[in-house]
Amino acid sequence: MCYRRPRYPFCCEVNVARDVKIIVEQYPDGFVAYPVGLRSIIVGQGDTRAEAIADVTSAIQFHVETFGIK
Q: What pLDDT does residue 59 have?
């Protein structure tokens, strides 16, 4: 997993059949993560960045296994 700091607050890439960029945003009550480039609504959340990334990664894997990458 690599970490970069473009114009988004935090982003990383994970390998789920292909690289998917994940945006992680921090809010007062936790973190929200979502992938860029997938044509569906996939969102993860958690109290920490790691929890949000794990949650959205799990959701992406489920989506890919169920529907394929679109």
A: 92
At residue 42, what are phi and psi to the nearest 5 degrees?
Answer: -125, 120
In this structure, what DSSP letter does residue 42 have?
A: -
Say what the pLDDT of residue 23 is: 94
Task: Report how many domains make up the chain.
Answer: 1
Q: Which domain holds residue 24?
A: 2-67
**Region for 17 from its dihedrals, namely left if φ exceeds 0, alpha if ψ lies in -120 to 50, beta otherwise:** left
CB 63 within 8 A of CB 40: yes
Distances (CA, A) of 40 to 21, 34, 35: 14, 10, 9
Backbone angles phi, psi at 14, to 5 degrees: -130, 155
20-66 tens-digit pLDDT: 899 999 999 999 999 988 878 899 999 999 999 999 999 999 988 88
